[in-house]
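User: Predict the complex.
Assistant: Input components as received:
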Amino acid sequence: MKTTLTVNGRSHQVEHDARRTLLDTIRDDLGLPGTKKGCDHGQCGACTILLNGERVNSCLCLTAMHDGDDITTIEGIGSPDRLSALQKAFVEKDGYQCGYCTPGQIMSATAMLREVSEGAPSYVSGDLDGAALTDAEMAERMSGNLCRCSAYPLIREAILMASEAET
Amino acid sequence: MYAFDIERPTTVAEAVNALKTDEAQPLGGGQTLIPTLKARLAAPSKLVSLSAIAEMIGISREGSTIRIGGATTHGQVATELAESYPALGYLASKIGDPAVRNRGTIGGSVANNDPAACYPAACLASGATITTNTRDIAADDFFLGMFETALEEDEIVTAVTFPVPQKADYQKFEQPASRFPLVGVFVAKHDDGVRVAVTGASESGVFRWTEAEEALSADFSAGALDGLSVDADGMITDLHGDGAYRAHLIKVLTGRAVTASR
């Protein structure tokens, strides 16, 4: 079957089996290996991408469900010589050890900071009107992204740094 | 995954038609079904994706009820109901994690009727109506047991309509890794009495704790539960907790929900 996707601003038509996930399409068919396959079951968040602007686990999206959709991967938000604010902050704060979860962390945080700026509620503090992005708030809002090396304190520092750079 | 065909209709009528194939199965957000397929625990001949059916997406307020389209995500419910039905918005905001909430749907959750899912408790305590392509089903008649519902083979949950209670609250005692409730209790105080629905605890899935409902309808305070207890018989025992523990949690969480309800 055939599906048309816009990935990082470029339109692609891919031919695939009905079982293909967006994760495999992105990595193997489109040659964008930045998106990582961790658990492949929607538990770890390493495969997080933006789907029409919202963060999702690409391992739990069947490509056939996404004809016409707009996708952003880690390759689409910056490049080595032009890093996004979050990418820069992760480098600066050492927001990783092995780095395998990092693309997912950064894509998830990219969406998370936008959600916060739009006032999306979370049950940690109800709403964020004028409130700081506390550790508890970040831990909850990033709860879908696991780091097996447990670099969480530095990941939170990086996110905080990027959020301050943006405002 | 075993091989399957997949269709992505844009109307409910097309979806119902696509489901007429033997062993065809509707696919909501896929947050439960896709891992199930990957583990080869299901072998549908065809998946019918409901994610492109515009008429099944969105939330509308109709008088004192809130209608949620079957393909509406948990994320949308969490964001849009924060003011109009806070207990339900809060429940949605605690399902899984943000990426899961951006895909998982209310229709998928109620149709699956996982014994530890959150939405069935909200449906039962609110006295919700589950609407399909053929009929309206009261929540009391919809949830039949563990992973069992009143749905027929080619029936799709197109919407769930919630009467908004005077006050309500959901208390969830989380299994911290999965974030499913070890026990979850939804308490709703309506004009004509209190409804208490319990998820995560019973081997027969979500159920109403009628003794607590009677006591709370007479006196809506945590103290009204003092003399009551839940029988541990038929409660789930697993490595996270035994039946007696879950039975105890039901009472504790019901009291907390009464105190916190707003």
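Chain A touches chain B at residues 1, 17-19, 21, 40-42, 45, 48, 51, 54-57, 60-62, 64-65, 67, 108, 111-112, 115, 120-123, 127, 141, 143-144 (CB under 8 Å).
Let me know if you want any component modeled separately.
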